[in-house]
Write the structure tokens for this entry.
Amino acid sequence: MGHKQLSKEKAHYRVMVVLSFLLTFFSFLLIIAGVVQATLLNASYFKSVAKSSGYLEECQQALQETFTSHATAANVEPQVFESFLTQDYIAKIVNTNIDYIYGNGDVMDYTQINADMNQAIIASIEARGIEVTEDIETGIQMLVDTCCADYQNNTNLPFLEFVIRGLEIAQKPMMYILAVLTIAVLFLLVFMWMISRKLEKFLPFLFDCSVALAILSIVFPALALAQKIFERVAISPERVRVLLVGYVNGILMRFFPVGIAMLIFAGVLMFIQIRKTKMQNKNA
Amino acid sequence: MNRIHGRKSYIALPILFSVLTALILYFTVWPTVAPYYSLFSILLTSEEQEEYNGVNLMEQISAGENLANRESISVSEISLPREGDQYGNLTIEGTSVDAPVFYGDGEKQLNQGVGTYAFGYLPGQGGTILMGAHTNTWFSDLGSAKIGSIIKLETNYGVYEYKIVDAQVKDHQDRTAYDFSRTDENIILYTCYPFGTIGFTTQRYFVYGEYVSGPVWVYE
């Protein structure tokens, strides 16, 4: 092989290295964007995390404690709140809040809960043989209003609305830009391959990209999980900590299937490459 | 395998790509994320590593220990209560009030006994101690407390007595009901009013007591 031919091959190699790095970089950004779309910007995912992380139980416990105290202060039987503290009941409120945050519904309306609770308390007072005077009615209404405010205080998700709305604005253009960039780089790589017309000069770079993506998709979330993000950080109140731990871990776990898929893809490329080389050697 | 893309490249290049990607992401994304992360840290994190359920500091007092006769106590000797701890017991002469006293006045503490307002003072500290309890449970008989009667507060570091000097009904938003700028030791007990009422009320029954005895905190 002549000196000129070798230099040309080296230059070709360098361009391929740069292009495959760019492909890795943009593809990884695209993977991140995909995970964000499937998790942070997905109301259903949020609802499932709220259920599986123990967030609903934490909300229920906090409300139980508050309502018991209110019942004692108001001389009302605590049992009257039982039907308003079931997990299904709280899940309904939490899900409505989540839908509102994601722009899929209106803000939680407590009018019906307010009326139902008022009715239930008055019925329990009357069952005790106490006449419900105007003063008592006013006192009960104050109690019910406080309970509705407690629902809101104990099921709200601080700052999340702000984060989601910001992400929603940025996500779509970002996805498009990344997709275009990734395809452009991929096209350039294919173009380079078409110049050389040798698959064995093209495949190794795709293999490098796939392995790098697998490393990024498996190792970094694994490191983050190993350190147990947020579990060591003290977050208060407890319900927010429980939710954040479940949420962040869930998002990181979403990278693993991508990493495994990339490893399988790299394995396939390696297999093709080895077969190709073997066939070439045989022909030679 | 390819002549130029040697075996080493199959290991080195993926590692190089992933490290470079991680570094670029770190240096470009972190400056944007950092302020939000700090904001979250400030607003969401607390000093408590785990949820604290409180302990009963009164159980730590040994049987033969006489806390009543001390006139002063060094702060270093005191096991200061954390929010949720039961650190005392309160009785009022001439009434049936006999209740455990907790530090903090959240719903959890009010469900269990008398709550101490955490931004006020503690017995012996030399300021206004504000304590509240529910009118239908622990303070149901607070209305029977007479002027001149003694409020006895046994804590894990000493026994305190306060003489009732006044009792008043005030609105729950009336800030003249308590004065935390006072530099003399005094106690204020409050509960919802009228007693035995059903539903929430806007009125509170306040009982005011002046310091009689108990170990004063000494800062060394």
The radius of gyration of chain A is 29 Å. Residues 160-196 of chain A form the longest helix (37 residues).
